[in-house]
Design brief:
It is a single chain. This protein has 14 helices and two strands; from the N terminus they run H-H-H-E-E-H-H-H-H-H-H-H-H-H-H-H. It is an all-alpha fold and 340 residues long. It has a single domain, classed as Na+/H+ antiporter like fold (Up-down Bundle), CATH 1.20.1530. A two-stranded antiparallel ribbon has the order 1-2.
Length: 340
Amino acid sequence: MAEASSGLGTFEKYLAAWVALCMVLGLLLSQYFPALGIAINSLQVAGISIPIGICLFLMMYPALLNLQLSELKKLARDPKPIILTLVSNWIWAPLVTAFLAYVLLAGYDQLIVSLILLGSSPCTAMVLVWGVLAEGNQEQNVINTSLNTVTIMFLYVPIVSLLTGIQNIQIDRLALLVSVFMFIGIPLVLGYISKRSIVSRKGLSWFDDVYRPVVGKIAILALLTTLIVLFSLNGNVLIENPGEMILVSIPLLLGFAIVVGINLVATKLAGFRYREAIISVIIGSSSHFEIAIATAISLYGLGSQAALGTTMGLFWEVPIMLSLVYVGKKLNNKGFWKTD
């Protein structure tokens, strides 16, 4: 969602503040203009709100512009950091998140599903920015995000289905599959086609320096718009039950701490240098909150606990990842990882 090579812009730097502001604005709208959110959500086709569907597409499209198939050919050069990150993305993170959800959110099936959606969706967008800020290995960063973009197409539905099925939580698996097709498959294809077309006509520099930053900011605006509508629809429920946001935040934060801890230890035991280790930790510990939110809305609707649960994942993601960048640099200064 942001141009990796230029680091974190002013708008993106304060994303957590914008998210909080939109949550408050949505709550206010729910109390003083409740018809607005309802009217937006009523414009539906096949159960999906048209305005929100457009916003969700605009959220996903810039992230999937990051796919670089040519980079995947470099996997054989040093596969160990890539393999460790994939293990974290598709084994440690989903299992830890699901376990905590089942233990700490018993009786809240939609909140459990929201955590599973977050834990089973490795990030493919903002990690490019976090990697730049952490001064990690950017070639590894691009390879990993490209690989995640491909693997999420095939692994997201089976893993979410498996983890929800452990406790017989019923979800519409066909709707889950359709969500992946709509919010990953279609943007992925269009992203690949548009990138080739733009690069051939305008050049790679124009694509990277002009096009991607613009659509990245549009994606964030679409995300914030979705949050306003989401909280305007759920305002009364949240005001009457504020404990739900705290309740879902506990396993989210605990899960992050555990997964980060596992990745820190794993990268140290594997003998990684800082530049490779920090990328493995960042990518292996982050979530693709865009697809999680899109899938939750598709499965349960805007006014659902699942949609709110995935939104809390977004709320915590930005400050936590910025903190991880800081912690990684501190650990490196103390000689935690192997030195050159």
